[in-house]
Design brief:
Blueprint: H1 3-29, H2 34-47, H3 52-80, H4 86-109, H5 112-131, H6 148-163, H7 168-177, H8 182-206, E1 218-219, E2 222-223, H9 224-245, H10 250-273
Antiparallel strand pairs: 1-2
Length: about 270
């Protein structure tokens, strides 16, 4: 086995596995898959010799780029089942795009420990939401209007862009707390992932980077090899997750996903504080 294979084959296999898991979770929970892809890609890049100073930035940006095709694939499957709330899409699209651009610009300029802290903190909150039996807790009977129409989706877009996720980790709980049925919240979140990922990816592609630290074939912070491996697999698997979402026990699925998120959050918070 050549030196190239020894160094890169485990990383490629890990990315294929992460892409498959990310695509499946994207369809099941409408979370874009980035919540899985980012930590796996971060570890893979560091194992391949990429500096920890930029590895997480590259992982976040590359994950965000892969969410573009994944969200298209997942949202199409949900739309065929009537599980997309187009009224929410219409109200949230502009502020969520603005927020994602702000988040991408901010992420490109902050220290890796800050980025890890943001990811770990939000992942921990999401884990608690998934683990606790809060599925039937409702704060209001409809998705907010008025001033909150801008604040809520803009915040979701900004934080999601900084984390490299499609927004479902935040938007699904937000919508269900406002009375949206969970299946429709998942389908709507899948489409919102496209509104988050496109502007955020553009921001990461044009960002200025420390070129001496960047891995080969990287544009801005987006790794082209990482995108080439992850995107096709996640695209192919996402519809399967969408189909399973309508037949599986979501409480057990949410609890398992919450346990995984808690582990990811612990690792990221340790990285931020170490």
């Amino acid at each position: 086995m050549t030196e190239f294979a020894v160094q890169w084959l485990p990383m490629l296999l890990g990315l294929v596995g992460a892409a498959a898991a990310g695509g499946l979770v994207a369809g099941l929970l409408g979370v874009g898959g980035g919540i899985i892809i980012v930590p796996v890609l971060d570890v893979a890049l560091e194992l391949a010799g990429v500096s920890p100073a930029v590895a997480l930035h590259v992982a976040v940006a590359t994950s965000m780029a892969t969410i573009v095709p994944t969200s298209i694939s997942s949202s199409r499957s949900h739309a065929k089942r009537g599980s997309v709330d187009h009224a929410v899409i219409k109200r949230w699209s502009v502020p969520i795009v603005a927020g994602s651009l702000i988040g991408a610009v901010a992420a490109a300029h902050v220290d890796a420990r800050v980025l890890a802290g943001v990811f770990g903190s939000v992942a921990l909150l999401a884990a608690l939401k998934m683990l606790l039996p809060l599925d039937h807790v409702v704060l209001r009977q409809s998705v907010p209007g008025g001033l909150l129409v801008g604040i809520v989706p803009a915040s979701i877009g900004a934080v999601s862009a900084m984390m490299g996720i499609g927004g479902g980790t935040l938007s699904v709980p937000s919508m269900t707390l406002c009375g949206e049925p969970v299946h429709k919240a998942v389908g709507t979140a899948a489409l919102l992932g496209l509104w988050i990922s496109v502007p955020a990816t553009i921001g990461y592609l044009v960002a200025r980077t420390p070129e001496d630290l960047m891995p080969p074939l990287t544009v801005g912070y987006v790794s082209l090899p990482g995108f080439a491996v992850i995107a096709p697999v996640a695209w192919a698997v996402a519809p399967l997750g969408a189909r399973l979402a309508h037949s599986m026990n979501r409480r057990r699925l949410a609890a398992a996903f919450g346990f995984f998120l808690a582990i990811v959050a612990a690792r990221m918070l340790y990285r931020a504080l170490a």
